[in-house]
Amino acid sequence: MSEAAPSTVLVVDDETDHADVMSEALLRQGFRTHVAHDLSGAMKLLEKHRFDVIVTDLAMDKPRDGLALLSHAQKLTPPPPVILVTAHNDVPTSKEALKQGAYDYIVKPLDLDEFRAQVLRASERSQLKQQNEILEARLNEQGGFENIIGRSPAMQQVVRTARQVANSDIPVLILGESGTGKELIARAIHDNSRRRKARYVALNCAAFNESLLEGQLFGHVRGAFTNAISDHEGVFEHANRGSVFLDEIGDMPTSMQAKLLRVLENGEVVRVGSNEPRRVDVRLISATNRDVESMVSDKTFREDLYYRIKGVSIRLPPLRERREDIPLLVYFFLKQTARKYDKEIDAVTADAQQLLMGYHWPGNVRQLQRTIETACVMSSGPMIRPEDLPAEVRPTSASAGASSLVGQTMEQIEREAIRQALDATGGNREQASKMLGMGERTLYRKIKEYNL
Prior knowledge:
By secondary structure, the chain is an alpha/beta fold. About 45% of the residues lie in helices and about 15% in strands.
């Protein structure tokens, strides 16, 4: 850990010599310490300072003073992890304290190496909890677009545009690679529109051949084709007065494009096997991962349909272009998965976060979600560690890790490392300096130098 930005530990023990030994052991490791020799002294220090970890003797003036301090610490915001120091005959009481929320206990006489390692783990846990509070606050800022996770400039622009168009009937074309979250944007636009009380119906145009696609879009009547044993309404009728989301519209056959254009122009659908037009009132939102403008030039996508569906275009950036959003996305998916599988995992270690930040994510947000879900299932502890991540996210050799640095100057590499550390810690410079192993003054100077 960095000596320039140490975690702060409160050491409490009524035996002065023992308290001094613990404090000195932690000081040598790079921690900052405050020492108290009784419960009242500890309480006074807690009123004045915020501590990352509390180490307290279980029995002091009274046999359960350590438990009283634990109870008080749990009422703090945020509550720091508490490590109890106990004699052999008090181990059962310490084990009971674990059920009451103590982080851990250690038995006298202390193994100082084990003691320091224990405090270091507790400190890391405390810092990750603080980061989670920052991330939780950021998630609560979304205001109506709760599932659109991201504070990067690119995603903020996406949300601003979506908000502006939501309550109109302007067609929206959402562009972006697979896995970037195009349907989430479409759903958010509908949910924030005047049509939100009516149906939102989604259809993937790439999932059907031409004949089936026509029936899915516009419906069919009984006997229109083999197995058409009853009338069936298509998505446009089903979503009447609501919104239709056509995903992968760039894969729609050109003959179907002409039929869709007629529906959009006159607001009427004709079911397959019928000649009777039916009026529909829908708001169209469409999406594609293809370059539609090039398709228009190549005559594989109708120009008139293109201009009909792109009243407003929204481009979703790939995850590699908004890496600063990764910590927030990781926290969001971790909460979802832990709740789904009833697992007590609420954080990602700094090393694992660094791997997640450095990966190129060809499958974008969808791949990140699956990665966190897998890691959560595979993890056996309270935090996701590098070994819990899928193999493709972990470098297999030194050369694999270095390949992404080829062609970059040392200044570029350092600037990116600082940027990622600041993103991962929610802008907390003290925590970022710890992650980087860099003094706070040096970090401040570098932030100014690189205009971060």
